[in-house]
Specification:
Layout: H1 2-17, E1 19-25, E2 30-38, E3 46-51, E4 54-60, E5 63-64, E6 77-86, E7 89-92, E8 112-117, E9 120-128, E10 133-141, E11 144-151
Antiparallel strand pairs: 1-2, 2-6, 3-4, 4-5, 6-7, 8-9, 9-10, 10-11
């Protein structure tokens, strides 16, 4: 009985430990609010593939996997929410299938770049746990955002130069 009571007191703490969140300032009037969670395999459809070098995790929830080197390891964390605030306007960004955003599941302003391009704004992000690395590009226009790129191909990292 003593352990059940202890578990009831610790359960909210355990849940909180699985979620990380924060806010980043990218410029005077642009900020990001983010939330990440531990990756729980039972909540996802994990697909494996096989080639001449062996088996590897190739997709999660039917989408190409980014954020891991090729192998059977599963992600440690996933981005579950990213909201860009431009002045008083808040826009939720597409974060589907964004795993291993960093080693510890936190984000930092140095991972992002925001750039005005004509009538719209482009937000670039760089995500890596120290092994698998990928970039994401969002186009923000008319109070809406479209994720245009999620890729680990070198040609999409040119924004970092």
């Amino acid at each position: 009985m003593r352990y059940r009571i202890l578990f009831l007191f610790l359960f909210p703490t355990l849940l909180h430990a699985q979620t990380r969140q924060g806010e980043l300032s990218l410029s005077e009037d642009v900020s990001l609010r983010w939330k990440s969670e531990l990756f729980i395999a039972s909540q996802h459809k994990v697909e494996t593939c096989r080639d001449t070098s062996g088996s590897y995790v190739c997709a999660i929830d039917g989408a190409v996997l980014y954020g891991l080197d090729r192998g059977m390891d599963l992600p440690r964390n996933q981005l579950t929410q990213l909201i860009v605030a431009i002045g008083h306007i808040r826009i939720e960004l597409d974060v589907r299938n964004m795993f291993n955003i960093s080693y510890d599941g936190t984000l930092h302003a140095t991972q992002f770049k925001i750039q005005k391009e004509g009538a719209y704004i482009r937000l670039y992000g760089f995500f890596s746990d120290g092994a698998g690395t990928y970039t994401v590009h969002w186009r923000i226009e008319n109070n809406m955002a479209i994720r245009e790129v999620i890729s680990d191909e070198e040609r999409y990292f040119c924004w970092q130069e």
